[in-house]
Amino acid sequence: MSGLNKGIHKVELAVKWDPSPSGLPPTDLDIVAATYLATDPYGDPAYVVYFDSRSPDGTIYLNRDSLDGKGFGWDEIMTLELNRLDSRYARVVAGVVIQQRTGRKTFVDVLNPAVRLREGYTVLAEDDFADVLGATATTVAEFVRDSSGEWTFHPGLHGHDTDPDGFVHIMGSRHGS
Q: How far is CA 129 from the centre of its chain?
């Protein structure tokens, strides 16, 4: 028995935004999640999940992908089944990155962006990116496996000014480094 702490098991990460005004290029936000091995929790990610990909074991996957923010409700949704993740993984970092194909955009250029993390019906965190308006990418959550094997959630946005490929390499670094 691992004690009374139930930890975090299955998380839904959702992002929404409004489409660009008529005549302007579309805005494309993407959810990204990276896993880190227990032997190197702040090193290079073991693997990264984003549009058109999923984790090798199927525990992290994108349910919905939007290229332009059109539609109702949450435009992108990713599921993270942390309770099924192999014990060799000790850390998962999730973030949101703005595609830069049509010119440089930061969160201040995105109309009505929002992010929500929940487990079942329990909202773990919600944010509107106000603290990272000058960033092109931001981490939104960190999940860490403790010594009992349970996952804990660490909220907080940490903005970065980089392209999507660069974000993958720095999103799991220690905050402030």
A: 13
DSSP per position, 1-46: ---S---B-EEEEEEEEEPPPTTSPPP-EEEEEEEEETT-TTSS-S
Query: Measured between alpha carbons, how far is residue 38 from residues 14, 68, 153 in Å?
Result: 27, 36, 16
C-alpha 93/C-alpha 154 separation (Å) is 10
Q: 146 with 152: CB under 8 angstroms? A: yes
Cα end-to-end distance, the chain, whole Å: 38
Q: Are 83 and 59 in contact (CB under 8 A)?
A: no
Q: Are 21 and 169 in contact (CB under 8 A)?
A: no
What b-and-e string marks burial along 9-23, b requiring 16 or more CB atoms within 10 Å of the CB? eebbbbbbbebbeee
Evaluate if pTM is beyond 0.90.
Answer: yes
Given a contact cutoff of 8 angstroms between Cβ atoms, the answer to whether 144 and 47 are in contact is no
Residue 9 β-bridge partners: none
CB distance 105 to 27 below 8 Å:
yes
Q: Which two tokens stand for residue 148?
A: 């009992």
pLDDT digits (tens, 9 = 90+) for 21-39: 999 999 999 999 999 999 9
